[in-house]
Structure formats: structure tokens, C-alpha cells
């Protein structure tokens, strides 16, 4: 991996954690962070952005990106991200324990990097996209946070079995495989909605499906 | 037009539900800058709160717009998170709330006392220069006052309408008049956004209409926070410039199309100085009348307006500008408005004192 790729990965993780602040999630459990990363990938095309990664290993316990985790660990090691409440949590869907913790930004060290990210990416809609997505995601109840992908149009579709790779644009075309994007773009076909409205409507539909069980 | 025929995966059975899903009360103002978006979203949350049976009848609350970095720094002992602030289910008053631009959640601290205590607390925190709003709950009428430059100064302070009001021609025109006076009347007022390539020569930029449209939209959104002011809405007959619609206060799924605004920039010259013939300007105005009518009719809009922003060399007045379309506009029920944009502060002064080279007062 090039130094630039590594920098991009670190910036992405900090940007995700920063966006979660919009939802007053100051310290995020792993499930929440990985789930937001997944949603940021499948819903990026709503803002005409390219997904950071267009595939993910399907697991019962929700999305998990080994690369993201590795980067997060490096950020913890370098002090830019703080870790607290390290403990084992039982993952019901996988019937096993997993190591979890709460991750938060250490502004003392990370604030300049976040500010630089906002400046460099100001001409793109990425900071706005992540902020709005996190705000929409943060409207889920405590029970739904970290478990939203069970009701996601792409993740929960039965065409891919658990422990298989979900491809939503890595090899297949996005239009044929990114059902989350398709669903977000299918709301109110006769109205011209803002991209951010589509994110909120997407999460509202996730909630409706969650309520139906 | 959005694609709506593709595979929806696990949501395939929800296809019809998705097509007719209620428009979210969130996200329509996401593209507006934080300082102007903040009071709009706040007014909506306060409205939601006031509909709750447990809504406060007395008391005061303050809301401060902060960055995510500031919010994290404020997340210390003694403050509480209301992640579902947007639902309006928790008490607002007696609290100092810290919000980011999305306005969906709050970090708050309890503050005993009235507005003086809240102002004093903000000053003590060194946050009295940040955009803030103060809400005074009352059986009738409650108020929401917005201080865009912080509580340390009254400069720019304005009342944000709460509840649901009328979306009338006079209020729309008044809102545009305020935007005109604050942002458009002379090149010096246009701030970082320039609508003239060379104001001395009277050359507007090519995209002057889009720039003015966005400024007017922000002003209208501020005046009618319970509505959505939408730009460039597609239809069978073309795209509307601005529409004021209400998707929030009626029954679920109900949309009221209050007004459609067709906007035209009238220019003597193009962005490179090419002269525009008076006959072409007259056609441009008549097109605007037709478009306002057709768009309004197709969307069952309650009000159709043609709003002209006159960037021509000379202000010939509203009567002369609209003489050739007055009858038609009356027949088609299209309301005509015009604002004259001066090339310089000097030209404006001359117009107001009636000196030669000036022009008659602008406005509807």
C-alpha cells in the first residue's frame, strides 16, 4: 500500500468519527463505526461520489472492514484516536464474543488533520455527505444503531450468503449490484429531491422495515 | 429524472411504498451554509416540540451553533446528550443547547433563570460571538430570536417565524426586498459572490440568474422555515426556478404548492459586453410570464410570480418595463415584480436624491 493510500485510509477513519459527532455520538463502538463506513460506501453514489470500497464480506454481525480496523488500531497507536471501555461483547448473531471498545477523536492531536481534510475536500461534497449521512444514521434508536444493515437493501438481500463477498461495484456494475443506491434514488420519482433528503428517507425506510421486524 | 426501474434488492417488495414515501422533513436545506441553515432547522424542531402535549408554556432556551471540534470540547461532565433532539420530545427550556450544522442532536447544560442567565453563561464560556438563537416559550405567542453574529451584538438579529403562517405575495416580495437591500442593490453589497463581471461597464456575469436565485432562496427559506424552497424543479414543461412547497404541516404525504417564482435577469449587455436589444428583453419578460403561468398551472400552485432583476444601464421603472405584458399577466394571474440593481453606490445615491444619471426607486 502506498503512503498516499495509507494517508487516505487514516483520513477516512477520522472523517467518519468526526461525522458521528454530528449525531452526538462522541465515542463509537466498532459496530457503529463499521456500519457507518458500509453505509458511506453504498450510499456515496447518491452524492455522485465514488465508494471508498465497493465490496464487503457479509457477516451475521454486520459489516466489518479489516482494513478499516487496522487503520483504526494505527490511529489509536499514534494517539489520534482514543479508546475506552475495552471489553468483550457477545455478538448474538454470531453466537460468540468479540473484542469491542469505544473510539473517539483526540482533538489535541487530530484537530489539525480534520481541519485539513475539510479544507482539501471542500470542493467535493464528501464532508457534507458524511455529515448528513451520520446525522441521518444518528436518527436511529439506540437498539437500531449498529444493527441497521439487517434492514439494508443491499446487505440484507439473500442473493449473497453469509461469509461471501457482497459486491456493489467492485467487479459488477454499481447499477446492477448496489441496491442501496438504487433504492435511495427510487424515492418519489416525480419529485426532484436533494441528495441529503434521499439519505434521510433511506434511513427512515430502514426504520420502517425495522419496525416491521 | 431519477432512475426508478432498477433492482431494489431486499427492498424489492417495497417498490410502491418507496415511490410514495413521505418526503423527509430533513435534508432539504443541507446545501445552505450553516449560518443560514441553523435557524431554519431550529424553527422546525421548536415547532415539533410545541406540538407535543408536554411542551413548555414558559421558560427560555438558548441554542448555539458550534463546530464538531467545539462540540467535542464541550462534551464534558455536567452536560447531557440528546441524540434524538430532532424529535422534539425533550424539554428545551432552562437549557443551553450546543448544536452542529445538521441540527439533529443536542449537547446541553441546565441553566436556571431567564434569558439574562443564558446570555451571561454564553459570555462566561467565551461563546457570545457564535451564531445563537433564543427561544421564549409561551402559551401565545412564543418567539425565536436569531443572533447570527452572536449574543454579544444585536447586529443582524431577527425573529424566526414559528408555527405555520401564510405564504402570501406580499411576504414573498418583502423577503426578496430584504435580500435585495442586503445583497444585491449595489456591487458592494454582493459579498464574496459577484454578479457583475464589470459593474462599471454594466456587464453582469453569465450565471447572474443562478447566483441571484440562490440568494433569494436562502432569504425565502428563512422567512418560511416550515416550507421547503426548492430550486430547479423539473416538470413536463421545463424546470421551475424557485418553488415554495409545504410537505410538513399537512397530512402525511400531503404537499401544498404555495408559489412558483420565475426569475429573469434583464440586461443591456452580456458578460462580454455584447449589447442586448430592447426587443429581446421584451421577449424575455413575456417568456417569463408564460413560464410562470404554465409551471404554476401544471403544479396546481396557489401563486405565480415573475421576479425580474433589472441589471440594465438605465432604470426605466416598473410601469415601462412591464407595459407590454401587463394585460397578459393580469389575465393569466401572474404577479409582476422587479428590482433594479445599481452599478455602484454612487448610482444608488444619485437615484435616491433624484440627480441625473439616477433612477426611480426599485421594488415591486
Describe the structure.
The complex is a heterodimer of chains A (213) and B (364). Chain A is α+β, with helices and mostly antiparallel strands and 213 residues long. Chain A contains eight helices and five strands; from the N terminus they run H-E-H-E-H-E-E-H-H-E-H-H-H. Chain A has helices at residues 3-21, 30-42, 66-77, 107-120, 126-137, 174-177, 179-186, 195-212; strands spanning 28-29, 55-57, 81-91, 96-105, 165-167. Chain A has a three-stranded antiparallel sheet. A two-stranded antiparallel sheet of chain A has the order 2-5. The radius of gyration of chain A is 17 Å and the shape is globular. The model of chain A has no long low-confidence stretch (mean pLDDT 93). Chain B is α+β, with helices and mostly antiparallel strands and 364 residues long. In chain B, a hairpin with a 6-residue loop joins strand 5 (132-136) and strand 6 (143-147). In chain B, helix 5 crosses helix 6. Chain B is globular. Chain B starts with 14 loop residues before the first helix and ends in an 11-residue tail after the last helix. Residues 1-5 and 356-364 of chain B have low confidence and may be disordered. Chains A and B meet through helix 1, helix 4, helix 5, helix 7 and helix 8 of A and helix 1, helix 3 and strand 10 of B.
